[in-house]
Amino acid sequence: QVQLVESGGGLVQPGGSLKLSCSASGFTVDTSTVRWYHRAPGSQRELVASLADGGRPIYGNSVKGRFTITRDNAKKTVELQMTNLRPEDTGVYLCNIFFVGGNDYWGQGTQVTVSS
């Protein structure tokens, strides 16, 4: 069964850290591009970070220097290390894995709330 499952969300105080994980099953992630998106309450989703297989990470302007995306093809996992979190980082974080010219997979998302 093809599936992406995110985990690691939760409630954190401003300035805190969280690590999100995305686990793929039912397909291999080699040659894919992996991405994390953020959907703030009442807003469209926006790209947070992207990492092509063998490529260099790309980050949205609002998270540069604070977030780090990594991938492990053997474990079929994608992680997003988030530091120095801000209230505006609150929202649902979605994992996306896609293949150019091919399949496009999405997870259900994990909620991150940054609040004191």
Question: Could you characterize what this model shows?
Answer:
- By secondary structure, this protein is an all-beta fold.
- Helix content is 0%, strand content 53%.
- It has no helices and eleven strands.
- Strands 2, 4, 5, 6, 9, 10 and 11 form a seven-stranded mixed β-sheet that branches. Strands 1-3-8-7 form a four-stranded antiparallel β-sheet, with no helix packed on it.
- Strand 5 and strand 6 form a beta hairpin.
- 30% of the residues are buried.
Keywords summarizing the entry:
116 residues, mainly beta, 7-stranded mixed β-sheet, 4-stranded antiparallel β-sheet
> Averaging pLDDT over every residue, what do you get?
96
Task: Give the % helix.
Answer: under 10%
Number of strands: 11
Order of helices and strands: EEEEEEEEEEE
Strand content: over 45%
The whole-angstrom Rg is 13 Å
Number of helices: 0
Write the layout of secondary structure elements.
Elements: E1 3-7, E2 10-12, E3 18-25, E4 33-39, E5 45-52, E6 58-59, E7 67-72, E8 77-82, E9 91-98, E10 104-106, E11 110-114
Parallel strand pairs: 2-11
Antiparallel strand pairs: 1-3, 3-8, 4-5, 4-9, 5-6, 7-8, 9-10, 9-11
Brief overview:
The chain is mainly β and 116 residues long. Helix content is 0%, strand content 53%. The protein is globular, with a radius of gyration of 13 Å.
